[in-house]
Design goal:
heterodimer; A: alpha+beta; six-stranded antiparallel sheet; five-stranded antiparallel sheet; B: alpha/beta; seven-stranded mixed sheet
């Protein structure tokens, strides 16, 4: 076998390995794996770090350097053919770099049921469905994505949808549906003056408050008909067991009811409401259903056409390099003087 | 004729592919916020399709906004405890009586209260326009209400023309609905 001078690698089982080729192929595979990982774990923040970009840039340099060299025939006919695969790998890796550098950081959008969130990166809007207590308890609400052309797609629990260079999935967030009644049993309007969704009876606990050493999710709402303002604190089953002996083993909400007129605690204005139960606190009868409601997680992913094109070019290049006899040429090189030997 | 080398063609294709790879990250734009609602109160809803939910009338029958398609609808979200709602209700009744013959419907949607509270209010105010009970406050959420009362003007095709936060005078109500009623005459 006539071995080109560039073959400087070790000999394994009688076959001379080209170190440059091995490094280039390893870099291509590693780089492409890192890029395809963005589609598998799109929410990982590491894809938007300089370390990730640096790793892909190094892989690009290794692959591109080999391809430019191999085109000149330094790695024989196989190397010249591998240049095609190298270009495919570079396309994939650049798609990953573009997504990591230029794509927006992963963002979680939490909205109240019945509201709409603009999704400019997708060219669409996310419709958060109106949820009744049963939906909150089951935690199976779907967020509907409506595009400008009128088409729509649902994103349900544990589902992921790809829209071009964006991946959308939902993550459950704790929620409680509150119903309130006055002393005569008449239903009361729930308002959330500090929330963008003023008329939502669903609490999403956006704040955290430390009480007795425990960091508790908290929210607030009002019942203006009876002039009450209520603070709500979420307690998990374990926290309920630790804080209130004799309570049923369920999640619960601690309600603190203030009188609007005095700003002070209403008589009998503090108490637990276990999920699915009624309790009268501060003169108001509350029914609370604790569960989850989806938040939308938006992540950048590499351009799908680039991944397909680059991936197929890479596989095609590999097949052409190693699957075809060296004397079979799909393309006649214009460089008549280039060495084609191995 | 000069021949192109394989490498040059592959490189050109790669450059084109890379340009298309990077392009989506520049100039991404979604629908205008005014057509999607959310985040800016009812005024942001102008131009959006009006969402409809089936809820109960005071008599217990099913009803919803979509049943009034073909009419100009002034949707009014209110509650009996809301002082400005109480204050504007006579003007709503007057508007309804003036313009219902021209194709106007005033649709009062009570937010979160029982039938007893809403009925008592309707009787006290001698209301003749339809009153619906939205115990789960679905309309209030969907129409981005940031307070009560909230009013929405919906055209005959079911699209929101205006979303208005706060109490309206009779003159302001006429200003909002008359152009739509006249356009049909």
């Amino acid at each position: 076998m006539n071995v080109p001078a560039a073959y400087v690698g070790p000999v394994v089982r009688g076959v001379r390995l080209n170190a440059n080729r091995a490094v280039a192929l390893a870099s291509a595979l590693a780089g492409m794996a890192l890029v395809f990982a963005q589609d598998v774990y799109p929410t990982w923040a590491g894809f938007h770090t300089w370390q990730y970009t640096a790793a892909l840039v190094l892989a690009t340099i290794a692959v591109l350097g080999y391809a430019l060299d191999a085109r000149k025939g330094t790695d024989g006919e196989v190397g010249r053919r591998l240049a095609i695969a190298s270009i495919g790998a570079v396309v994939v890796i650049v798609a990953g770099i573009a997504s990591g550098l230029l794509g927006p950081d992963t963002e979680t959008i939490a909205r109240a049921p019945g509201t709409v969130a603009p999704l400019p990166d997708v060219g669409a809007a996310g419709f958060f469905p109106v949820a009744d207590p049963a939906t909150i308890a089951r935690g199976d609400a779907h967020v509907q994505i409506r595009r400008r052309d009128g088409s729509s797609t649902d994103v349900g629990p544990n589902e992921r949808r790809f829209f071009g260079t964006t991946a959308l999935e939902t993550t459950p967030q704790m929620a409680a549906y509150v119903e309130a009644r006055d002393a005569s049993g008449g239903r009361l309007t729930i308002t959330q003056p500090t929330n963008a969704a003023f008329l939502s009876p669903v609490l999403l606990f956006p704040e955290r408050v430390t009480i007795a050493g425990r960091s508790l999710p908290s929210d607030s709402f009002s019942t203006p008909a009876v002039r009450r303002t209520i603070k709500a604190f979420y307690f998990s089953k374990d926290e309920v067991a630790a804080a209130a002996h004799g309570m049923p083993g369920r999640e619960a909400v601690l309600l603190v009811v203030d009188e609007d007129a005095s700003g002070k605690l209403a008589p009998g204005g503090i108490g637990f409401v276990p999920s699915g139960s009624d309790a009268t606190i501060g003169g108001v009868r509350f029914h609370v259903t604790v569960g989850t409601y989806p938040a939308l997680v938006i992540s950048a992913v590499p351009s799908p056409p680039a991944l397909w094109f680059g991936g197929l070019l890479f596989l095609g290049g590999l097949a052409y390099a190693f699957g075809f006899p060296q004397d079979v040429k799909l393309w006649e090189s214009s460089k008549k003087d280039a060495p084609a030997r191995e | 004729m000069p021949r192109l080398s394989l490498g040059l063609i592959v490189a050109l294709i790669a450059v084109v592919a890379i340009v298309f790879t990077v392009k989506p990250y520049f100039g991404a734009s979604g629908p205008p916020a005014s057509r999607m609602g959310g985040g800016g109160g009812p005024a942001m809803l102008a131009g959006a399709p009006a969402q409809s939910y089936t809820i109960k009338t005071l008599a217990g029958a099913d009803d919803g906004l979509d049943r009034y398609r073909g009419s100009v609808v002034l949707v009014n979200l209110w509650a009996s405890w809301c002082a400005p709602c109480r204050s504007e209700t006579p003007a709503l009744e007057r508007l309804y009586r003036d313009d219902r013959g021209k194709g106007l419907v005033v649709l009062g949607i009570d937010q979160g209260e029982s039938a007893a509270a809403a009925s008592a209010f309707a009787k006290e105010m001698n209301l003749s326009y339809p009153i619906l009970l939205d115990e789960d406050q679905q309309y209030g959420r969907a129409y981005a209400a940031i307070g009560l009362p909230t009013s929405l003007v919906v055209d005959r095709t079911g699209h929101i023309v205006r979303g208005i936060d706060g109490e309206l005078s009779l003159a302001q109500m006429h200003d909002a609905v008359d152009p739509l009623l006249q356009a049909h005459e």
